[in-house]
User: What shape does this take?
Amino acid sequence: MSQNNVHLEDIDVSDGKQTTNPVSRRQRDGRNCKQICCMQMFAVLVFALGVVGGICIGIYAYDHGDSNKSNININCQMNSQEDKTSKLQTTTPKVKTDAEQPGVCQNTSPVKDKRYENYIFAPLTAREMNKVANYLLSQSIISTKEIPHSLTQNFILYQCLQPPTKADALEYLDNSGVKPKRYAKVTLQRGAVPSPDVMEYKVGPLDGTAMSAVNLTKPGYIHFNSRPYESLEVAAMTKIMLPHMKTLAPLISESFDGARFPDDIYFNFFNGPPSTSGTERVTRWNVAFKGFRHEEDLDLIHILPLSGRVYNPGTDTSKWYAYDFHYLNQGPYNTSTDLMNAYMSNNIRKVKLEAGFRNTLWDRVFPKRDSSLPLRDNADIHGPRTYYPAGPRYTIEGTHVKWMGWSFDISGSQIRGPALFNINFKDERIIYELAVNDIALNYAMDSHAQNNIIYADATYGIMGGDSPTTIMPGVDCPEHATILNTTFWWHTTQTAYDMRSICIFEADGQDALWRHAGHNFEAGLRNRHLIVRSPVVIGNYDYTFEFHFYLDGKVYTHAKASGYIQSSFWDEGNPHSPDNTRDAFGYRIGEYMTGPIHDHMFGFKVDFDLVDKNNSFQIVKWKAGPVLEALKTQKHDITKAPEYFIYNETRYIEWERIEKEMGIQDPSEQQFWLVINEREKNKWGVERGYQIAPLATGDQALKTHPLLNALSFTKFHCAVTKRKEEESTLTSIYDVNRMEHAQEYLAKHIDGESIVDDDIVNWVTVGFLHVPTTEDMPMTVKVETGFMLRPFNFFDRTASFDMPEHAETKDGIIRESEPSYEQCSEPKKEYCRFC
Assistant: This one.
């Protein structure tokens, strides 16, 4: 075929005859082939450039167009092809040059004022705390403002804001009254007075005018032996134990892999309470390995089976002594010498940890990634992030926050934890105070030192008990969050420390707050909400408290727990537990380690002020029964059920107006707890109200235990009382150390007073039961509980329909969307705590 294809340039016409020149043809064929190849390569290159360019333009149009493009695309699918084409042509963006590419997102600060002292609910500042300490020293109320060195001194344990009375605050907020001045509530340990005690004072005002210190308690009311633990006492007990540790050195070394005190083990004295009477004081101790590189870190995982007691009442440490020594729960031995003699004579069971066990402690304790395991697929790629494309939508003045119709004041107490005041939505007050009050834990285990451990965390200080809490950026809060400081008074150094303890940010729920897709339309509102978050550290446990504000008027309160568990020693020879995997109090979760069962019960104060401060409490019961029974709830004289009911059993609701203070103990009955304003009705004549709806929560199983007075809030899932300034909390921080003579507790507040159309408070308790398992090692993954406060006929209709939403109809008459924004990149924000 190719032989018959003769090109004109290959014909030789020199002699007038049509002939071919073979040499000339080969040369020309080569030249022609090169030209053809070049043309083909050029065509391929042009095609490739066109494809790449088209893709780039498409990506740019998708990523850099405004948010209305998605609406146009949806509309295109609904309308005709011709309409689709025209709209697409009118919205195709031109390619931007490098100079026109979007830059970093706006990084404007929402903070308008940093002066906490200007706001009546703001936490105390370091400057104010130091002013208080200087004043108390000048009045000889405290002995020292330096590091205290003796129990016979007077020094400050805690400082926190003393909020104004509610009457004074409302007069200022609602009636342009006098602005309440700021005062401090100061807790003093008084060892220098003839009868040592603990005293609380109201100190101030803190505005630079003449100050005073007013007693909040009477001398002697809080016995010295019911005080919280503090560092001087721990140091004195440690000193008492030193000679006993020397005596027991052979036992410790042989039993615990060559361990020595104090290089390898330390004392744990926090096996509370130290007393049930409040007038005596006996501290249970045990020893534990120092699993951390720094001994100030608390390791309650590697508990060892050596324990005893220290008798330590009053301030005269020369009268303190150690006794009641136990080893592997064998005892009691009155002295360490008695225990050592029994050990050396082989009269007791022994334990011997394998050689090298101590060298594995760091790997067991520190929650680092297991480098022996391969990374999961794509784990080396950074996960999703969120940020503000147009800057924050909330503002902060001092600690006063505004966002999307919400406004409130952030507060907090070193003792009680985070709190919010004066919560308003759409210019109406919803809640006067929403506050963490206390956390109760009760441990059960087969251990001499650790059975029936009871903690009330407010006694140690929820928000800065033994060390400042610092936000971990990117872990606790997103990088774009605003972080607020609170101040922590450390009794050990008598110094005020600022700590980055609260973060605020708007969150994208990445789901619908509401939605509906019909045949001819679709509409929905993306769920965005404001979060106030405060992580706290109390010994081995980390808690995170959160308040979530939603666009429809809901408020969610969350309590989350993480951190290290407190373990107990696993004794393979325990005569009470022949099972090698568990005992009556928990599972075996590691070498020489069991996870004792315990609970975490969180007590909150919820002071609703729905429109005004006088509200009522109502229970709506969800019931089932005969139809006539249901109808009689509305008309008592009815005698016959209508015949149109198919079945003679139905569900119905029954309303109960609560007249007197009460506590609700049994959540098994299906019911709604409502706070209502009987004088304020919605458009349909129904009392405006809010519902208190707990998330899944644990129950208090104890019936006669002494803690049920001091920590009586754990018995109730919800309680309602008449609000009083003198009943401002649901526990006393001292009652856990004087359980037999508790003075201030929730059950005592419930004394039969009327709560109809009055200023009332709800006390809400939520929690969870914790049975530690191997998944809690080395770190407990977040466990959560909480409750929701939800509008209940408070509005005439859904409160979020004043927000821009997504809406689209098939005929194109309605088309709405969120405000548009320019595409931008995330601002960089770096913070390192240890740098």
